[in-house]
Design a protein that fits this description.
By secondary structure, this protein is mainly α. The chain contains four helices and no strands. The two termini are 30 Å apart.
């Protein structure tokens, strides 16, 4: 987080929202769920969830697209699959 002038708040927030939205939708959803899980004091359970979730995400089409785009030096096109 950072502090911005009141007049810069909306443009700064929109820029951050666009940056987040450019990521794979399933990964963003998992990140939000993971952040909520950090409130749970059972770190073992959270760790198990994270490992399972990472494995699931790595098998998605968006993960394959991300790797292909990196190798091909192009911007990825995420579909949410």
């Amino acid at each position: 987080g950072r502090v911005v002038a009141p007049g810069d708040l909306m443009p700064t927030a929109l820029a951050l929202a666009e940056k987040i939205a450019a990521n794979p939708p399933q990964a963003v959803k998992s990140l939000k769920a993971g952040l909520r899980r950090t409130l749970d004091p059972d770190w073992r359970d959270t760790g198990k969830w994270a490992i399972t979730e990472i494995r699931r995400l790595m098998q998605t089409q968006d993960a394959k697209e991300s790797a292909a785009a990196f190798i091909e030096k192009r911007k990825p096109v995420f579909t949410g699959n």
